[in-house]
Specification:
alpha+beta, Thrombin, subunit H, 2 helices
Length: 143
């Protein structure tokens, strides 16, 4: 009986360690710019025209947007949106891909607001990481 309990405790510890350690990598470093789901309204300005979009996800380097907009790849845009529990973000970007109503933008890497986005994304990944570890522990403890 004690051996079974010991094995369960070790399994939980290993699971938590793997989740927390990410096999040696932080969650956002598993890909060059890992994404996190974020659905917020975004105002997009493009050559003097303004239209509304909805974000689908965000990374440290860019954002996926959904809108009926006549944007083209390599077109510069100016984005305005509010991150949850953060301030208004206004940042220039460039359209890097488009498929139907979805289009991806890459944030200006030299803009001062980029650090606000990077901090928010890092915090969001850490929160997701903690929730996943807690869920793994709770799941492995249940019979």
């Amino acid at each position: 009986m004690y051996l079974v309990i010991l094995c369960a405790v070790i399994a939980v510890a290993v699971t938590v360690w793997l989740i927390m350690a990410g096999e040696g990598k932080s969650p956002e470093s598993r890909r060059s710019n890992a994404r996190i789901q974020l659905i917020v309204p975004v105002t997009v300005e493009c050559f003097g025209e303004v239209f509304n979009a909805a974000s689908q996800d965000i990374s440290r380097g860019g954002m996926l947007l959904k809108a009926e907009a006549l944007v083209k790849v390599a077109q510069p845009v100016h984005l305005s949106f509010t991150l949850p529990e953060a301030m208004l973000v206004e940042i220039p970007a460039v359209v890097c891909h488009k498929r139907g109503e979805l289009f991806g933008v890459k944030f200006d890497p030299t803009h001062r607001r980029r650090t606000v986005i990077e901090k928010w994304v890092r915090h969001a990944f850490e929160e997701d990481h903690r929730r996943a570890a807690k869920a793994a522990v709770q799941q492995s403890v249940q019979p």
